[in-house]
Design a protein that fits this description.
Helices cover 37% and strands 15% of the residues. It has a five-stranded mixed sheet with strand order 3-2-1-4-5, sandwiched between helices. α2 crosses α3. With 199 residues, it is α/β, with parallel strands linked by helices. The chain starts with 11 loop residues before the first strand and ends in a 21-residue tail after the last helix.
Length: 199
């Protein structure tokens, strides 16, 4: 069972991102404030849940959270500012949308930049420790998966509806065969062999 709160703040927001290690598409992030009486024993790090369970929990989180928001940073922006900065920017964009505004932020991982002078704490493997971070991981993951399935209709050759643009063998094989598309992250190593593409 995950812990509900890290701080004594009234409105503690949990943040997490999805798609940081992908070769294409945006990085997504979510921010979630849960009520003080929230209780759900099924919520966990999204990587520990089946796809079906993630979507069931997404509905519960959206219905029962005090506030939630999802935001993204495009592949083009990732290439300009790097993936770490892009992940943090996506979290800031999600936090910007929350009402009520959080008075404390807990973030999965060990890197974050201050947001609006609000106190924050980074927590390694936080998505397996605190409910709000786990809830954010579920929202970020499912919204990004939905987005990649849409992009897969435009570029079916990369099989994104299945691999979600992670560096799987089939995704890399498709990049080798067809070359990268407009949604690929040019700053990433798209192939294992360092082949150069004419962009």
């Amino acid at each position: 069972m995950l812990e509900l709160k890290y701080s004594t703040a009234t409105y503690e927001a949990g943040c997490d991102e999805a798609g940081r290690g992908c070769l294409a598409g945006p990085v997504f992030a979510a921010a979630v404030i849960l009520p003080n009486n929230f209780n759900n024993q099924l919520i966990n790090d999204s990587k520990q849940l089946s796809e079906k369970k993630r979507y069931q929990l997404r509905e519960i989180i959206e219905n029962e959270a005090l506030a939630w928001a999802v935001a993204s940073v495009s592949a083009e922006e990732i290439d300009k500012i790097n993936i770490l900065n892009a992940s943090i920017l996506a979290m800031h964009r999600a936090l910007d949308q929350l009402t009520p505004k959080p008075d404390f932020v807990i973030v999965d991982g060990n890197r974050f930049k201050p947001w609006n002078d609000v106190q924050h704490s980074t927590i390694v493997k936080g998505d397996g420790k605190y409910m709000a971070i786990a809830a954010a991981s579920i929202l970020a993951k499912t919204y990004r998966d939905d987005y990649m399935c849409k992009l897969a209709e435009e570029f079916p050759q990369y099989n994104w509806q299945k691999n979600k643009a992670y560096p799987t063998t089939d995704h890399r094989a498709a990049i080798k065969q067809y070359g990268p598309c407009i949604y690929h992250r040019r700053s990433f190593r798209l192939l294992n062999e360092q082949l150069s593409f004419d962009f």
